[in-house]
């Protein structure tokens, strides 16, 4: 308290000067219409700027929460779109009506990427969901923009995903315009490009055409983006095109993914096993 009194005494002339200046400004603003309006407009401008900065800072601190909410909403929309598309397949013959359980067989679980590789020959990534969240090896993984990979190992809280940027990973893909089906397989070079193999050269391929997951996938829903045709080449002594796709997923900036569960996968796999045994 004594220090405060001492400070006021030592700076009394300066404090009186400041007080008089403030009083003068207040009297001018109160008695003069022009300066009153100028003060009002200027003060409102800076108050608005301050509030905008405060709101931006508050929203920035909530970005993780907002991203998580958007990811959950995307998962719900993915499930809805997949169900609707399976109820009315575009290429289905007249009279075909799919079973409702078959149409709704895919469910989605949101997960956050906690580790990711793009510069190796066989790349994997790690997500923050495991067996405690219903994740199992063999499940497909997609992003908001396209195919990501397949679950390889699981612990209780984490899972390791075999990325599409892996030499042993292939996914059945279909070109939207030409309807041709092949396999997307990474050549181990550029993380933005992937090869599409086993597409017959006796059909027309369009540069820029979309490649999506085909109906022959049991792990991925049909119609999930893989990439777009970047280049098309063919050698005279070959019967297949050399097609390069530009991946739709940017693996260097992957934050959230969706683990896809096919509720009828077990039944499909059991039938395959029985077929192999019979053969």
TrEMBL record:
List each copy of the Rod shape-determining protein MreC beta-barrel core domain by range. 113-261
Signal sequence annotation? none
The family database entries (InterPro entries) matched by this protein are listed as: Cell/Rod_1, Cell/Rod_MreC_2, MreC, MreC_beta-barrel_core
User: Which source organism does the UniProt entry give?
Assistant: Dyadobacter linearis
Where do the TM regions start and end?
12-29
What family does this belong to? Belongs to the MreC family.
Keywords from UniProt, A to Z, are: Cell shape, Membrane, Transmembrane, Transmembrane helix
Q: Which domain of life is it from?
A: Bacteria
* Protein name in UniProt: Cell shape-determining protein MreC
UniProt KW Membrane keyword = yes
PANTHER family (alphabetical): CELL SHAPE-DETERMINING PROTEIN MREC (PTHR34138:SF1)
């Amino acid at each position: 308290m004594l220090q405060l009194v001492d400070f006021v005494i030592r700076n009394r002339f300066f404090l009186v000067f400041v007080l008089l200046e403030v009083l003068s400004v207040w009297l001018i603003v109160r008695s003069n219409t022009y300066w009153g309006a100028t003060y009002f407009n200027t003060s409102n401008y800076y108050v608005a700027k301050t509030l905008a900065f405060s709101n931006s800072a508050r929203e920035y601190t909530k970005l993780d929460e907002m991203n998580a909410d958007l990811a959950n909403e995307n998962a719900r929309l993915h499930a809805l779109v997949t169900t609707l598309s399976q109820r009315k397949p575009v290429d289905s013959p007249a009279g075909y009506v799919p079973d409702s359980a078959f149409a709704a067989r895919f469910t989605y679980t949101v997960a956050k990427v906690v580790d990711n590789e793009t510069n190796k020959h066989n790349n994997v990534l790690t997500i923050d969901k495991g067996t405690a969240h219903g994740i199992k090896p063999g499940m497909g993984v997609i992003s908001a923009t396209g195919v990501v990979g397949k679950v390889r190992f699981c612990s209780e809280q984490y899972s390791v995903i075999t990325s599409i940027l892996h030499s042993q990973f292939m996914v059945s893909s279909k070109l939207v315009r030409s309807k041709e089906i092949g396999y997307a397989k990474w050549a181990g070079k550029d993380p933005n490009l992937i090869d599409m193999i086993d597409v017959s050269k006796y059909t027309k391929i369009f540069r820029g055409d979309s490649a999506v997951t085909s109906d022959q996938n049991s792990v991925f829903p049909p119609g999930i983006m893989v990439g777009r045709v970047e280049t098309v080449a063919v050698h005279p002594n070959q019967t297949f095109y050399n097609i390069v796709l530009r991946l739709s997923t940017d693996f260097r900036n992957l934050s959230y993914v969706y683990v896809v569960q096919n509720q009828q996968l077990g039944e499909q796999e059991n039938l395959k096993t029985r077929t192999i045994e019979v053969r």
